[in-house]
Amino acid sequence: MKMNAEIKAELISIGAVDIDPELLGRITIPTAGPGAGGRAFFFKSGRHRVRLVVDGGSPLRAVKDKGDIVLLKGGKELVRGSIEEELIHCPGQAYITMSERCIYDCKFCPVPKLKGKVKSVEEILALVEDANSHGKMEGISITSGVEETPEKEVEKTVAVVKELRKRYDVPIGVSVYPTKDSSRLLKDAGATEVKYNVETMDRGIYEKYCKKPPLELTLRCLEDAVHIFGKNHVFTNFIVGLGESDEIVEKYVEELAKMGVIPNIRAVGVHPLRFGELEAERPTKERLLKLTKMARRILDKYGLDASVSKTMCLPCTGCDLNPHTDL
Ligand code: SF4
Predict the structure, then answer these.
(1) What's the first-to-final CA gap in the chain, in angstroms?
(2) Mean pLDDT of the 266-287 span
(3) 49 C-alpha to center of ligand 1: Å?
(4) What pairs with residue 143 in β-bridges?
(5) Longest dimension (CA), the chain
(6) Which of 59, 63, 202, 287 has the fewest C-beta atoms under 10 angstroms from its C-beta?
(7) How many domains does the chain have?
(8) Quick check: is 148 in a domain?
(9) How far is CA 296 from the centre of its chain?
(10) Would the CB of 191 count as within 6 Å of ligand 1?
(11) Rounded to two decimals, what is the model's pTM?
């Protein structure tokens, strides 16, 4: 059976699979975002893709059969497809984390705990060059924690984007913590799209788990970004599973869409480094489908299209249901 939206929702909801490492190709360990530090791979079937964490305790098991990778649930075939190679972090893109550390301490994110590497501009350029020489690079995405201040991080990202733009003619996406003029600076440097993450818009939950500056600042920066980058080129991660109601998600997805921002609805995942620090419940497949259909209806109402994006998570679709390409 090939993957469809229902099966993909179930796979995202479970999030992991028990697989023999020998079946995996060249995989990287993500250094930013909710999956940072974990081992994972991309599973492709039909027109859908999903990223699954490797976990021996998962109710899903992967086996090889007639040249396919088959995912079994309760011993029965759920879906068959193949493993997709990554370029850097995801298929088709060189998606690079600049600073694998962060001065903030958002409770759903492992990056502040990892205290990882801070890459120089030269190191980033070398990684992209290597990716470009190995496969078809359709886009470049740059993300980062905040090593010292948001302003310094934006300044360094601008320098990276300027150098990349001199060398490559592919879309460049940037996801950083925003500043009052980050959109103007990034656009002038040659960036194509930006993502500034609200994480959640339930103010009580934000207060409890997001240990970065107030949400209102990010919202103002998103509004400004739409003026500069245009509709369909400004995104935000919207985590679900932190205790928010569906009504709250709907209300704020509409508020963002009205601004011209496309929310990327992301199922919460609790990284082992964060066990005990947050109460989270991974959404069921029914909830994921319901929220994605709701997002599709709202995006259509405001003339937004999640299939137009060229960089970062919306075209990758590994971790989420894209309201336009997956439904
Ligand atoms: S959807 Fe985003 S976070 Fe997930 S694998 Fe793709 S690029 Fe990475």
Answers:
(1) 17
(2) 92
(3) 11
(4) 97, 175
(5) 55
(6) 59
(7) 1
(8) no
(9) 18
(10) no
(11) 0.94
Mapped onto helix, strand or coil, the DSSP state of residue 97 is: strand
Whole-number pLDDT of residue 272: 84
Give, using CA atoms, the residue closest to atom 4 of ligand 1: 319
> CA-CA distance, 186 to 155, in Å (whole number)?
9
> Quick one: CA dihedral 241, 245, 249, 255, positive or negative?
negative
Residues of the domain holding 25: 5-84
Tokens matching residue 35: 């999956």
- The pairing of strands 193-195 and 234-240 is parallel
The atom number, within ligand 1, closest to the CA of 89 reads 8
33 found inside a domain: yes
Instruction: For residue 228, report the distance from its CA to the centre of ligand 1, in Å.
Output: 24
Distance, CA 51 to ligand 1 centroid (Å)? 8
What is the mean predicted confidence (pLDDT) over 18-45?
75
In short, whether 41's Cβ falls inside 6 Å of ligand 1 is no
34 Cα: distance to centroid of ligand 1 (angstroms):
10
> If you take atom 7 of ligand 1, which residue's CA is the nearest one?
313
In a domain? residue 37: yes
In the prediction, which pLDDT does 273 show?
Answer: 86
Q: How far is the CA of 197 from the centre of ligand 1 (A)?
A: 14
Q: Ligand 1 in contact with 34 (CB < 6 A)? A: no
The CA distances from residue 159 to 92, 98, 130, 212, 300, in Å, are 23, 12, 19, 24, 36
| Residue 289, domain member (yes or no) | no
